[in-house]
Amino acid sequence: MSSNSSLSKVLPVLFGFFVMGFVDVVGISTSYVQKDFNLSDSVANLLPMMVFLWFFVFSVPTGLLMNKLGRKNTVLLSMVITVIAMLVPWIAYSYGMALLAFALLGIGNTILQVSLNPLVSNVVSQEQLTSRLTLGQFMKAIASFLGPIIAGFAAASLGNWKMLFPLFAVVTLLSGLWLWLVPIPREESVEQTTSFGEAFGLLKDKTILLLFMGILFVVGVDVGMNTATPKFLMERTGLPLEQAGLGTSLYFAARTFGALTGAILLAKLSAMRFFRISMISAVAAMILMLFSNGTVPILILVAVIGFAIANIFSIIFSMALQKRPERGNEISGLMIMGVSGGAVLPPLMGLASDAIGQTGSMLVILAGMLYLLLAAYVVKVKTQD
Fold first, then answer.
1. Residues 57, 134, 253, CA angle at the centre, nearest 5°?
2. Tell me, what's the pLDDT at 274?
3. Burial of 83 (0-12, 13-18, 19+ CB in 10 A)
4. Going by C-beta distance under 8 Å and a sequence separation of 6 or more, which residues neighbour residue 330?
5. What are the structural domain ranges in the chain?
6. Structure confidence at residue 186 as a pLDDT band (50, 70, 90)
7. Which of 40, 323, 368, 382 could form a disulfide with 217 if both were Cys (CB 3.0 to 4.6 A apart)?
8. In this structure, what DSSP letter does residue 194 have?
9. Most confident of 2-11, 23-32, 270-279, 336-345
10. Which CATH superfamily is domain 3-126+144-193 in?
11. What is the mean pLDDT of the chain?
Protein backbone atom coordinates (compact mmCIF):
# COMPACT_ATOMS: atom_id res chain seq x y z
CA MET A 1 0.00 0.00 0.00
CA SER A 2 1.49 3.36 -1.02
CA SER A 3 1.75 6.24 1.45
CA ASN A 4 -0.75 8.29 -0.56
CA SER A 5 -3.22 5.41 -0.64
CA SER A 6 -2.76 4.85 3.09
CA LEU A 7 -3.27 8.56 3.81
CA SER A 8 -6.50 8.60 1.79
CA LYS A 9 -7.89 5.96 4.13
CA VAL A 10 -6.53 7.44 7.38
CA LEU A 11 -7.83 10.99 6.86
CA PRO A 12 -11.60 10.26 6.72
CA VAL A 13 -11.26 8.07 9.82
CA LEU A 14 -9.32 10.73 11.74
CA PHE A 15 -11.80 13.43 10.70
CA GLY A 16 -14.42 11.43 12.57
CA PHE A 17 -12.67 12.54 15.77
CA PHE A 18 -13.49 16.14 14.85
CA VAL A 19 -17.17 15.17 14.72
CA MET A 20 -16.69 13.40 18.05
CA GLY A 21 -15.81 16.76 19.62
CA PHE A 22 -19.24 18.19 18.75
CA VAL A 23 -20.65 16.53 21.87
CA ASP A 24 -18.91 19.13 24.04
CA VAL A 25 -21.21 21.80 22.63
CA VAL A 26 -23.61 20.69 25.36
CA GLY A 27 -21.63 22.88 27.77
CA ILE A 28 -22.29 26.22 26.09
CA SER A 29 -25.71 25.06 24.86
CA THR A 30 -26.86 24.46 28.43
CA SER A 31 -26.21 28.11 29.26
CA TYR A 32 -28.18 29.32 26.23
CA VAL A 33 -31.10 26.93 26.83
CA GLN A 34 -31.24 27.92 30.50
CA LYS A 35 -31.40 31.58 29.51
CA ASP A 36 -33.96 31.03 26.72
CA PHE A 37 -36.41 29.15 28.95
CA ASN A 38 -35.52 30.72 32.32
CA LEU A 39 -34.62 27.35 33.84
CA SER A 40 -33.22 26.63 37.28
CA ASP A 41 -29.72 25.16 37.55
CA SER A 42 -31.02 21.73 38.51
CA VAL A 43 -33.39 21.56 35.53
CA ALA A 44 -30.81 22.95 33.09
CA ASN A 45 -28.21 20.44 34.26
CA LEU A 46 -30.40 17.62 32.96
CA LEU A 47 -29.05 18.50 29.50
CA PRO A 48 -25.43 17.41 30.10
CA MET A 49 -26.71 14.44 32.09
CA MET A 50 -28.70 13.33 29.01
CA VAL A 51 -25.40 13.19 27.10
CA PHE A 52 -23.33 11.58 29.85
CA LEU A 53 -25.81 8.82 30.72
CA TRP A 54 -25.51 6.94 27.44
CA PHE A 55 -21.81 6.18 27.80
CA PHE A 56 -22.76 3.80 30.60
CA VAL A 57 -25.84 2.39 28.87
CA PHE A 58 -24.76 1.89 25.24
CA SER A 59 -20.98 1.34 25.26
CA VAL A 60 -20.92 -2.45 25.67
CA PRO A 61 -24.00 -3.05 23.44
CA THR A 62 -22.27 -1.02 20.72
CA GLY A 63 -19.20 -3.22 21.02
CA LEU A 64 -21.43 -6.23 20.42
CA LEU A 65 -23.26 -4.47 17.57
CA MET A 66 -19.94 -3.99 15.76
CA ASN A 67 -19.59 -7.76 15.59
CA LYS A 68 -22.60 -7.78 13.27
CA LEU A 69 -22.33 -4.50 11.38
CA GLY A 70 -18.57 -4.06 11.23
CA ARG A 71 -16.66 -1.05 12.51
CA LYS A 72 -17.09 1.24 9.51
CA ASN A 73 -20.84 0.69 9.28
CA THR A 74 -21.21 1.32 13.01
CA VAL A 75 -19.35 4.62 12.67
CA LEU A 76 -21.66 5.58 9.78
CA LEU A 77 -24.69 4.74 11.96
CA SER A 78 -23.38 7.09 14.64
CA MET A 79 -23.02 9.85 12.04
CA VAL A 80 -26.67 9.44 10.99
CA ILE A 81 -27.85 9.69 14.60
CA THR A 82 -25.63 12.74 15.16
CA VAL A 83 -27.05 14.53 12.11
CA ILE A 84 -30.60 13.90 13.35
CA ALA A 85 -29.64 15.16 16.82
CA MET A 86 -28.26 18.38 15.35
CA LEU A 87 -31.40 19.03 13.30
CA VAL A 88 -33.92 18.51 16.13
CA PRO A 89 -33.41 21.85 17.99
CA TRP A 90 -33.23 23.69 14.68
CA ILE A 91 -36.56 22.30 13.48
CA ALA A 92 -38.43 22.46 16.80
CA TYR A 93 -36.98 24.38 19.73
CA SER A 94 -38.29 23.76 23.24
CA TYR A 95 -36.81 22.45 26.45
CA GLY A 96 -38.26 19.00 25.77
CA MET A 97 -36.86 18.94 22.24
CA ALA A 98 -33.49 20.09 23.58
CA LEU A 99 -33.50 17.10 25.94
CA LEU A 100 -34.33 14.82 23.01
CA ALA A 101 -31.60 16.38 20.87
CA PHE A 102 -28.90 15.90 23.49
CA ALA A 103 -30.08 12.38 24.29
CA LEU A 104 -29.63 11.54 20.60
CA LEU A 105 -26.29 13.36 20.56
CA GLY A 106 -25.15 11.34 23.56
CA ILE A 107 -26.23 8.06 21.95
CA GLY A 108 -24.57 8.98 18.65
CA ASN A 109 -21.37 10.05 20.37
CA THR A 110 -21.22 6.88 22.47
CA ILE A 111 -21.55 4.74 19.33
CA LEU A 112 -18.96 6.92 17.57
CA GLN A 113 -16.39 6.67 20.36
CA VAL A 114 -16.79 2.90 20.70
CA SER A 115 -16.51 2.21 16.95
CA LEU A 116 -14.12 4.90 15.70
CA ASN A 117 -11.22 4.12 18.04
CA PRO A 118 -10.85 0.48 16.91
CA LEU A 119 -11.50 1.48 13.29
CA VAL A 120 -8.21 3.41 13.44
CA SER A 121 -6.43 0.07 13.87
CA ASN A 122 -7.86 -0.96 10.47
CA VAL A 123 -6.03 1.83 8.64
CA VAL A 124 -2.72 2.13 10.53
CA SER A 125 -0.06 -0.29 11.69
CA GLN A 126 0.21 -1.40 15.31
CA GLU A 127 3.35 0.73 15.60
CA GLN A 128 1.34 3.84 14.68
CA LEU A 129 -1.81 3.10 16.67
CA THR A 130 -1.08 5.08 19.85
CA SER A 131 0.21 8.08 17.90
CA ARG A 132 -2.81 8.15 15.57
CA LEU A 133 -5.31 7.78 18.43
CA THR A 134 -3.60 10.73 20.11
CA LEU A 135 -3.80 12.73 16.88
CA GLY A 136 -7.51 11.91 16.82
CA GLN A 137 -7.88 13.29 20.35
CA PHE A 138 -6.14 16.47 19.18
CA MET A 139 -8.73 16.87 16.40
CA LYS A 140 -11.51 16.24 18.92
CA ALA A 141 -10.03 18.94 21.17
CA ILE A 142 -10.09 21.44 18.30
CA ALA A 143 -13.81 20.84 17.77
CA SER A 144 -14.45 21.15 21.52
CA PHE A 145 -12.55 24.44 21.55
CA LEU A 146 -14.40 25.84 18.52
CA GLY A 147 -17.92 25.03 19.76
CA PRO A 148 -18.33 27.97 22.20
CA ILE A 149 -16.65 30.33 19.73
CA ILE A 150 -19.04 29.36 16.92
CA ALA A 151 -22.04 29.65 19.26
CA GLY A 152 -20.94 33.13 20.35
CA PHE A 153 -20.36 34.21 16.75
CA ALA A 154 -23.76 32.86 15.68
CA ALA A 155 -25.50 34.69 18.54
CA ALA A 156 -23.69 38.00 17.97
CA SER A 157 -23.40 38.13 14.19
CA LEU A 158 -26.18 35.86 12.90
CA GLY A 159 -28.72 36.67 15.57
CA ASN A 160 -29.31 33.07 16.61
CA TRP A 161 -26.90 30.84 18.54
CA LYS A 162 -28.72 27.76 17.22
CA MET A 163 -27.15 28.35 13.79
CA LEU A 164 -24.29 26.17 15.02
CA PHE A 165 -26.55 23.09 14.84
CA PRO A 166 -27.16 23.04 11.05
CA LEU A 167 -23.47 23.87 10.57
CA PHE A 168 -22.43 20.88 12.67
CA ALA A 169 -25.05 18.73 10.90
CA VAL A 170 -23.56 19.57 7.49
CA VAL A 171 -20.01 18.85 8.67
CA THR A 172 -21.14 15.53 10.17
CA LEU A 173 -22.95 14.60 6.94
CA LEU A 174 -19.87 15.39 4.84
CA SER A 175 -17.68 13.40 7.22
CA GLY A 176 -19.99 10.40 6.91
CA LEU A 177 -20.08 10.62 3.11
CA TRP A 178 -16.28 10.87 2.97
CA LEU A 179 -15.87 7.74 5.09
CA TRP A 180 -18.61 5.88 3.18
CA LEU A 181 -16.84 6.47 -0.15
CA VAL A 182 -13.45 5.22 1.08
CA PRO A 183 -12.82 1.45 1.20
CA ILE A 184 -11.39 0.46 4.57
CA PRO A 185 -8.77 -2.33 4.51
CA ARG A 186 -8.82 -5.27 6.87
CA GLU A 187 -12.46 -4.63 7.69
CA GLU A 188 -13.92 -7.72 9.29
CA SER A 189 -17.41 -8.46 7.98
CA VAL A 190 -18.85 -10.50 10.81
CA GLU A 191 -17.09 -11.68 13.95
CA GLN A 192 -18.12 -14.44 16.32
CA THR A 193 -21.24 -13.45 18.24
CA THR A 194 -20.48 -12.44 21.83
CA SER A 195 -22.86 -12.22 24.77
CA PHE A 196 -22.98 -9.51 27.42
CA GLY A 197 -21.59 -11.99 29.93
CA GLU A 198 -18.62 -12.78 27.71
CA ALA A 199 -17.95 -9.09 27.11
CA PHE A 200 -17.96 -8.22 30.81
CA GLY A 201 -16.03 -11.43 31.44
CA LEU A 202 -13.02 -9.75 29.82
CA LEU A 203 -12.68 -7.78 33.05
CA LYS A 204 -11.50 -11.02 34.67
CA ASP A 205 -8.24 -10.35 32.83
CA LYS A 206 -6.22 -8.39 35.40
CA THR A 207 -4.63 -6.16 32.78
CA ILE A 208 -7.95 -5.30 31.12
CA LEU A 209 -9.45 -4.50 34.53
CA LEU A 210 -6.51 -2.23 35.42
CA LEU A 211 -6.84 -0.43 32.07
CA PHE A 212 -10.62 -0.07 32.46
CA MET A 213 -10.06 1.51 35.89
CA GLY A 214 -7.40 3.68 34.27
CA ILE A 215 -9.96 5.07 31.78
CA LEU A 216 -12.37 5.66 34.66
CA PHE A 217 -9.79 7.59 36.67
CA VAL A 218 -8.27 9.60 33.81
CA VAL A 219 -11.75 10.84 32.82
CA GLY A 220 -12.48 11.56 36.49
CA VAL A 221 -9.25 13.54 36.82
CA ASP A 222 -10.06 15.46 33.64
CA VAL A 223 -13.60 16.36 34.74
CA GLY A 224 -12.31 17.14 38.22
CA MET A 225 -9.68 19.57 36.96
CA ASN A 226 -12.25 21.30 34.73
CA THR A 227 -14.63 21.90 37.62
CA ALA A 228 -12.24 22.45 40.54
CA THR A 229 -9.60 24.73 39.01
CA PRO A 230 -11.65 27.98 39.17
CA LYS A 231 -12.79 27.26 42.73
CA PHE A 232 -9.22 26.48 43.81
CA LEU A 233 -7.98 29.74 42.29
CA MET A 234 -10.74 31.70 44.00
CA GLU A 235 -9.95 30.16 47.39
CA ARG A 236 -6.15 30.49 47.14
CA THR A 237 -5.79 33.83 45.31
CA GLY A 238 -9.08 35.67 45.86
CA LEU A 239 -9.75 36.03 42.14
CA PRO A 240 -13.37 36.67 41.08
CA LEU A 241 -15.12 33.90 39.15
CA GLU A 242 -14.82 35.75 35.82
CA GLN A 243 -11.02 35.70 36.07
CA ALA A 244 -10.69 32.36 37.86
CA GLY A 245 -12.63 30.73 35.04
CA LEU A 246 -9.67 31.41 32.77
CA GLY A 247 -7.91 28.60 34.62
CA THR A 248 -10.24 26.10 32.92
CA SER A 249 -9.56 27.68 29.52
CA LEU A 250 -5.82 27.37 30.18
CA TYR A 251 -6.29 23.72 31.11
CA PHE A 252 -8.13 23.04 27.83
CA ALA A 253 -5.46 24.89 25.84
CA ALA A 254 -2.67 22.91 27.51
CA ARG A 255 -4.50 19.64 26.83
CA THR A 256 -4.92 20.54 23.16
CA PHE A 257 -1.23 21.39 22.79
CA GLY A 258 -0.31 18.27 24.75
CA ALA A 259 -2.33 16.06 22.42
CA LEU A 260 -0.58 17.51 19.36
CA THR A 261 2.82 17.07 20.99
CA GLY A 262 1.94 13.52 22.00
CA ALA A 263 0.85 12.61 18.48
CA ILE A 264 4.35 13.54 17.32
CA LEU A 265 6.39 12.06 20.17
CA LEU A 266 4.43 8.81 20.45
CA ALA A 267 5.36 8.00 16.86
CA LYS A 268 8.94 7.61 18.12
CA LEU A 269 8.83 6.96 21.88
CA SER A 270 7.61 3.94 23.85
CA ALA A 271 4.01 4.43 24.94
CA MET A 272 4.76 2.93 28.37
CA ARG A 273 7.71 5.24 28.94
CA PHE A 274 5.62 8.23 27.84
CA PHE A 275 2.83 7.09 30.20
CA ARG A 276 5.22 6.98 33.17
CA ILE A 277 6.88 10.32 32.46
CA SER A 278 3.50 11.99 31.97
CA MET A 279 2.08 10.71 35.25
CA ILE A 280 5.21 11.53 37.24
CA SER A 281 4.96 15.09 35.88
CA ALA A 282 1.23 15.34 36.66
CA VAL A 283 1.59 14.04 40.22
CA ALA A 284 4.56 16.32 40.92
CA ALA A 285 2.66 19.36 39.57
CA MET A 286 -0.41 18.55 41.68
CA ILE A 287 1.67 18.19 44.87
CA LEU A 288 3.36 21.53 44.18
CA MET A 289 -0.02 23.13 43.49
CA LEU A 290 -1.31 22.03 46.89
CA PHE A 291 1.40 24.20 48.47
CA SER A 292 1.00 27.18 46.10
CA ASN A 293 -0.85 30.42 46.77
CA GLY A 294 0.15 32.71 43.89
CA THR A 295 -1.97 33.08 40.76
CA VAL A 296 0.89 32.64 38.29
CA PRO A 297 2.42 29.52 39.92
CA ILE A 298 -0.99 27.85 40.14
CA LEU A 299 -1.83 28.62 36.51
CA ILE A 300 1.56 27.27 35.38
CA LEU A 301 0.98 24.05 37.32
CA VAL A 302 -2.57 23.72 35.93
CA ALA A 303 -1.09 23.97 32.44
CA VAL A 304 1.54 21.33 33.27
CA ILE A 305 -1.17 18.95 34.50
CA GLY A 306 -3.31 19.53 31.39
CA PHE A 307 -0.30 18.94 29.13
CA ALA A 308 0.70 15.76 31.01
CA ILE A 309 -2.81 14.25 31.14
CA ALA A 310 -3.61 14.96 27.47
CA ASN A 311 -2.39 11.64 26.06
CA ILE A 312 -3.19 9.20 28.87
CA PHE A 313 -6.65 8.25 27.53
CA SER A 314 -5.23 7.34 24.11
CA ILE A 315 -2.31 5.42 25.60
CA ILE A 316 -4.55 3.34 27.86
CA PHE A 317 -7.06 2.70 25.07
CA SER A 318 -4.38 1.55 22.62
CA MET A 319 -2.84 -0.70 25.29
CA ALA A 320 -6.20 -2.39 25.83
CA LEU A 321 -6.65 -2.97 22.08
CA GLN A 322 -3.13 -4.38 21.80
CA LYS A 323 -3.64 -6.65 24.81
CA ARG A 324 -6.61 -8.46 23.21
CA PRO A 325 -6.74 -7.40 19.53
CA GLU A 326 -8.98 -10.35 18.63
CA ARG A 327 -11.65 -8.92 20.97
CA GLY A 328 -11.17 -5.30 19.91
CA ASN A 329 -14.89 -4.50 19.57
CA GLU A 330 -15.79 -5.70 23.05
CA ILE A 331 -12.67 -4.11 24.55
CA SER A 332 -13.61 -0.79 22.97
CA GLY A 333 -17.09 -0.98 24.47
CA LEU A 334 -15.71 -1.66 27.93
CA MET A 335 -13.16 1.14 27.73
CA ILE A 336 -15.69 3.74 26.57
CA MET A 337 -18.03 2.63 29.35
CA GLY A 338 -15.24 3.84 31.62
CA VAL A 339 -15.92 7.37 30.35
CA SER A 340 -18.84 7.35 32.77
CA GLY A 341 -16.13 7.58 35.43
CA GLY A 342 -16.52 11.30 35.06
CA ALA A 343 -19.38 10.86 37.54
CA VAL A 344 -17.21 9.11 40.16
CA LEU A 345 -14.64 11.66 41.35
CA PRO A 346 -16.74 14.89 41.37
CA PRO A 347 -19.13 13.73 44.14
CA LEU A 348 -16.15 12.64 46.24
CA MET A 349 -14.52 16.00 45.55
CA GLY A 350 -17.67 17.75 46.76
CA LEU A 351 -17.63 15.83 50.05
CA ALA A 352 -13.92 16.53 50.54
CA SER A 353 -14.26 20.25 49.76
CA ASP A 354 -17.17 20.58 52.19
CA ALA A 355 -14.93 19.08 54.87
CA ILE A 356 -11.60 20.88 54.32
CA GLY A 357 -12.07 23.32 51.43
CA GLN A 358 -10.85 23.11 47.85
CA THR A 359 -7.63 21.44 49.00
CA GLY A 360 -9.83 18.40 49.63
CA SER A 361 -11.02 18.43 46.01
CA MET A 362 -7.45 18.47 44.77
CA LEU A 363 -6.49 15.63 47.11
CA VAL A 364 -9.22 13.48 45.53
CA ILE A 365 -7.84 14.32 42.07
CA LEU A 366 -4.34 13.48 43.33
CA ALA A 367 -5.61 10.07 44.48
CA GLY A 368 -6.86 9.40 40.94
CA MET A 369 -3.48 10.47 39.53
CA LEU A 370 -1.65 8.16 41.92
CA TYR A 371 -3.69 5.23 40.63
CA LEU A 372 -2.69 6.13 37.07
CA LEU A 373 0.96 6.40 38.13
CA LEU A 374 0.72 2.97 39.75
CA ALA A 375 -0.93 1.54 36.63
CA ALA A 376 1.91 2.92 34.50
CA TYR A 377 4.30 0.62 36.38
CA VAL A 378 2.02 -2.35 37.06
CA VAL A 379 0.33 -2.87 33.68
CA LYS A 380 2.22 -5.22 31.39
CA VAL A 381 1.29 -5.03 27.72
CA LYS A 382 3.53 -6.00 24.81
CA THR A 383 3.14 -2.86 22.74
CA GLN A 384 4.66 -2.68 19.27
CA ASP A 385 6.14 0.77 19.57
1. 95
2. 93
3. buried
4. 60, 63, 64, 194, 198, 199, 202
5. 3-126+144-193, 199-378
6. low
7. 368
8. -
9. 270-279
10. MFS general substrate transporter like domains (1.20.1250.20)
11. 84
